[in-house]
Amino acid sequence: MDLHAYTKSIGDLLSVNKKYIVPRFQREYSWKSEEVAELWKDISASIKVTNGACVNLEYFIGSLVLVGQDSSPEMKIVDGQQRLTTITILLSALTQSFKDISENNLADGLYYQYIEGKDNSNQPYFKLINETPKPFFQRSIQHHTKEELETSTEEETKLLDAYKFFYHVLSFDSTKSHFKNFDSINGTDPEKHKAVLNSLRDQILSYLKVIYITVTDEEDAYTIFETLNARGMSLSAVDLIKNLIFKDLKTQHPDDYAKTEWKKIGENLGSGESAINMDTFFRHFWLSKYGFTSEGRIYKTFKDFKEDNVISSASFLEELVNNSEYYNSIVNPNIDDWRLPEEKAIYNSLLALNLFKVVQPRPLLLALKRARLDAKINIHDHVNMIRTLENFHFSFTAISSSRASGIDGKYSKAARDLEEATDRTQARAVLASLTADLRSKVPAKSIFEQKFIKLWFTNGKTKDKKLIQYIFRTIEKNKRTTSELTTDMITLEHILPQSDTTGSSYVGLIGNLLPLDGRINNVADTAVFQQKLQHFQSSELRMVEEFINENQATNNWTESKINARSKSLSDFSYDHVWNI
C-alpha cells in the first residue's frame, strides 16, 4: 500500500482546484448538535483578544484520509468526511454572515476560493462533492444564493441543523453575548463583529490543521475504512457492512446499483413524520432476522455469513430496502399502508404502541410483516398478535410502567423463530408461545388499578390526555357490536368543572372525565349536575348513555363518586378490554 502523510491547513486543502468526493460506500452525514457545537467551541476558543485585536492559535482537528494521486483533480474521502462537511457548512454560514453585513467582497472571496471552484472549461463546481443529499445540500447550504427546500431525510435535517447552528452563532447578538472579550476589541460594535468574523475565517483556513494522508488505490480505501474502525474510530456495524456491500457491488454503469438502492433505504426511513435513525432500523432488522448479536460482533457475523454463502451482498441489500419500507410503516403508521378493511386494526394498534412510546416489539413487527408476505401467517394471525402486543403494553407499559427486563430478548427470539418457521403450523406455535409468555407478565390487577386510578387531566396538566382519550375510544368501541360509529373526534369533559376549587385534588381524575363531542362539552361545561345529564343526552356514545342511566338519581357529583367511577373504569379495562 502506497501511503503518504503530511500536515495541511484547511485553506491549503480547499484553495486548490480539486474536488473532494464523498465515496459511495461512506456513511451519510451523521453529526448531531453536540458534535457540531464541540467543533465550534474548539474553533472559537482558539481565538484570543490581545491589545484590542483578535489573535489566532493553531488547532489540530485530526486526520483526513484520501484516495487518489495528490496531483489529480479529484480525491475521494476515506476518513474525515464528517469534519470536512461540517467545516464546509461553517464556511457557507460565514459567507452568508458577510453578506448580511454588506461585506460582499469578503463573502465572494471566501465562497469562490474555498467552497466553489471552476474547472479548465470555466465551469463551476463545488469543492466538496456529496451526491447522497443532492440537491438539498448543494442548493440550500453550499450555494452562494441559498434556496429554502424542505428536508426529506434524516441526513438532510442534520445538515440543515448544523447550518442553522453556525448561522446563529455567527450573528451579531450571539458573538456579542458569547464571544470572550468581545467588548475589548477595538472599534464600534459592527466593526467588532466584522473583526470576529474575519478572525474566524482566518482561524478555519489558516490555523486549523489536519494530517493529510493519501493512498493511490481505491481497493486500499475499503481496507483503510475497515481498519480505522478496528483501531477505535466511531463507525457502526451498518457503516462497515455498507462498505463491504459497496466493495462487492462495484458496477456503476449504466447505474450505480448499490448507491441507488442504499439511497432508497434513506428515503424510506425519512419519508414519515418521524425520521428514523439508520442504526436503529438496522439493529431492529438484524434482531428480527438473525437474532441477538452484540453490536461488536454483527459485522464479523455478517462476514462469516457471506463466506459461508448464507447471504450475498445483493440479496442482503434488497432485504434492507424492503424492510426499511416495512419499518417506516410500523414507526410512522399511515392508513394507506394498511388498505385492507381487516388491516385497519393493525393500523390502530401501531398508533397505540407509538402512543405508549414502545419500541421493543419492532423486530417482531418486522418479522410478522415478512411472515405474512411469505404466507406463514394469515391476516387474522397478524391482527391478533398485534392486538395482543397493544393490550399487553397498555397494561405493562402505559399504565403500570413495569420494567421491561427480558422483553427485548423474547421479541427477538420470537422474530427469529418466526423467520425460521417453515409452515403456518410452526409460525402459529411461535405466536402462541409468545402470547403465553406475555400473559404471564401482565401486571397484577391491584398494581394496574393503583396506577390507573391516578390518571389525570386538567388544562394545567395534560401529560395523560392522549392516553385517556385512547382509553375512552377503546372502551367505547368495546361496548359496541359494530364499527359504524367512530369516536376519533372527542374532547374530555370534566363532570365536576375545573373551576370548582373545592375539587382541586380530584377534578382531573379519570373518574371525573367523560368523552364528548366538543359542541356538547361547550354547552354543558358550567351547568349543575342534573342539567349536565340533560345536555349529555345529546351524545350517541354508549359510555355517556350508561353514565346518565347510572346517575339519574344523583344530585351531587362528589369525590367518593369520582373515586368509585375511577375504580369501575379500571376494573372494566383490566377484565374486559385489555385482557390477553
From TrEMBL:
Domain of life: Bacteria
Domain GmrSD restriction endonucleases C-terminal: start-end pairs: 454-570
Residue ranges annotated for the GmrSD restriction endonucleases N-terminal domain, each copy included: 10-246
Coiled-coil blocks: none
Protein name per Swiss-Prot or TrEMBL: DUF262 domain-containing protein
Species name: Algoriphagus jejuensis
